[in-house]
Amino acid sequence: MSLILCKKHGEVGLIPTVSAMLSHGIKQETVSADDIGITHIKLIDEGELLSEKIYFFHNKFDNLKPFYLIDDDKSDQQFSQEISQIFNGGGYCVYCFKDYMEKIKFDLNNLPAPSGLTI
User: Fold this and answer.
1) Which of 1, 41, 54, 70 gets the most CB atoms within 10 Å of its CB?
2) Phi, psi dihedral angles at 15 (to 5 degrees)
3) What is the CA angle 22-24-29, rounded to 5?
C-alpha cells in the first residue's frame, strides 16, 4: 500500500484503484452512488488464484467491464492497456474515500470479492 499526505487525515494509506475521473468527482462532491462502477479482477497463475482486486471507476466517463480474469501475459497486457489512462492520476485517501462512500450510501460491504477485502 502506498502512503499519501492527506490535508484532512495526515499521512495515510492511498487506494490506488480509484480512477482519475472518480477521484476528481469525489473531490468536487459531484459523484452519486449510481455514478460508481466496480471492476472485479482475478489474477491466476498456473490455475492458482494469486489475488483479487476491486477497481472503482466513474460510470459516466470510464468504460470498463465488470470482471477481468488475468491468467496469462496476453490478458495482463490487455488489462494494463485498458486501465493505464483511466487510472493515471487517480487514487484517493483511504479515509476520505470511505467517508464519501458512506455519505452517498454506496455499500462497500457487498463488493464482489472474497471476504478479507477491506477498505
Assistant:
1) 70
2) -90, 105
3) 90
3-state secondary structure the chain: CEEEEECCCEEEEEECCECHHHHHHHHHCCCCHHHEEEEEEEEEECCEEEEEEEEEEECCCCCCCCEEEECCHHHHHHHHHHHHHHHCCCCEEHHHHHHHHHHCCCCHHHCCCCCCCCC
65-77 as b/e: b if 16+ CB within 10 A: eeebebbeeeeee
The pTM is what?
A: 0.88
Asked whether 29 and 102 are in contact (CB, 8 A), the reply is no
Q: Whose grid coordinates read 489475488? A: 51
Residue 113 cell numbers, joined: 470479492
